[in-house]
Amino acid sequence: MNIGLLHPGEMGTSVGEALQAGGARVFWASEFRSAATRVRATRAGFRELPTLVDLCRQCQAIVSVLPPDACADVATQVLAANFRGVYLDASAKAPDQSRQTARAFRREGIDFVDGAIIGPPIRAGSITQLYLAGSRAGEVAHWFAGSGFRTQVMGGQPGTASVLKQCDSIVNKAFLALLYQGLELAERQGVRAQLLAHWSRDAGSAVSVALAHQRLRRSAPKAPRFAAEMADIARTLQALQLPDASATAAQHLFQRLAVELDAVDAGGDAPLLKAAGWPGADDRGQAQSAGQQGSQGSADPA
Ligand SMILES: NC(=O)c1ccc[n+]([C@@H]2O[C@H](COP(=O)([O-])OP(=O)(O)OC[C@H]3O[C@@H](n4cnc5c(N)ncnc54)[C@H](OP(=O)(O)O)[C@@H]3O)[C@@H](O)[C@H]2O)c1
Q: Would you place residue 80 in the very low, low, confident or very high pLDDT band (cuts 50, 70, 90)?
C-alpha cells in the first residue's frame, strides 16, 4: 500500500518508519518543506513526490502528523486535491476540529480516522501509544502491527482520541508551565537555589529536580507547538463552560518561551529560560539534538 506522510517532522518520521517497517511504501511531498524535513525524510528512506496533489493521487492512505495549528489547513488542501482513501490525522488537535474534518471528508467519500499519539518518537525498542477512533480505526491499527506504536481503538466516533490527548496534555504541559513559573518566581525573589534544594530533600514533593531539569530542557524548543495545543484546549474547555485559566496561562507561558528562544538566537536576554537553568544559545542546540535523539522514558510531555 502507498501511504502519504504529511509531514516528516520529528514524530511524523517515527510514524512513517513504523509504517514502512510494516510493508507500506511511504511517500512525502517536498514542496514548501524545509531542509530539516528533507534530511529526516531522506534518512528514513521515504519516497519523494513534488507536491501534495501528486501525493493525493498516488496514495491509498494519508497519515497527517502536524503541529496543531497546521492540520486543519492541510486537511482542506487534501480535500481540494480530490484525495480518495483513508485519512489518519494523528496530530494533536481539537476534538471539534476532528469531527468537523471527519464530516467534510465523509461527504467526499474519504474515511477519516482520528488519532492521538501519547509518548515520544520510537527509539530502540520503546513503546508509544497511538489511540484511534473512526469507522476504519481497526484497519489502521493493523498498519502499525509489530511496531513500537501500541494501538488502541477507541470506537467509531472521530474526536474521541483527540479528547483523550487533550486531557493528558493539559495535565502534563500545565504542570511543566508551573515548573517554569515556580522557578522564575524563585529566581526573581532570590531563592532559586533554596527551592531546588527543598525539592531535592522533600521526598513528598511533586517535583523531582532531575526530572524537572530534563523536562524543561527538552521541551523548551517545542514551546510554539505547546502554545498552540494549549490554545486549542482552552477553546475545548470554554465550549464546555469549564474554567480555562490553566490552559490559557500555560499557553501564554509557552508563547513567552517561544519569544525568549528567538531572543536567545539573536543574542538577547531570556529571563524565563535562565530561571529554568538554560544558560544560553549553545544550550538550545544541545536540547534540539537531544530532541532529535528522542527522549528516554516518558519524562517529556509529548
Ligand atoms: N515530537 C513529539 O515528541 C510528539 C509526541 C506526541 C505527539 N506529537 C504530535 O505530533 C505532531 C507533530 O509534532 P512534531 O514534533 O513531529 O513536529 P515537528 O518536528 O515540528 O514537525 C512538523 C512537521 O510538519 C511540517 N509543518 C509545520 N508547519 C506546517 C504547515 N503550516 N503546513 C504544512 N506542514 C507544516 C514541518 O515541515 P517544515 O518544518 O519543513 O515546514 C515538519 O515536517 C504534533 O501534533 C504533536 O503534538 C509529537
A: very high
Which numbered atom of ligand 1 lies nearest the CA of 40? Answer: 43
C-alpha cell at 24: 507500506
Q: Whose CA is nearest to atom 29 of ligand 1?
A: 70
CA of 65 to the centre of ligand 1 (A): 6
Q: Is the CB–ligand 1 distance for residue 302 below 6 Å?
A: yes
Least confident of 54-68, 105-119, 201-215: 201-215
Q: How far is the CA of 7 from the centre of ligand 1 (A)?
A: 7
d(CA 84, CA 12): 21
Mean pLDDT taken over the chain? 90
For atom 42 of ligand 1, the residue with the nearest CA is: 9
Residue 123: pLDDT over 50: yes
- Decide whether any atom of ligand 1 lies within 6 Å of the 63 Cβ: no
pTM over the 0.85 mark: yes
Q: Name the residue of 66, 77, 118, 254 to mutate for ligand 1: max ligand atoms within 8 A of Cβ.
A: 66
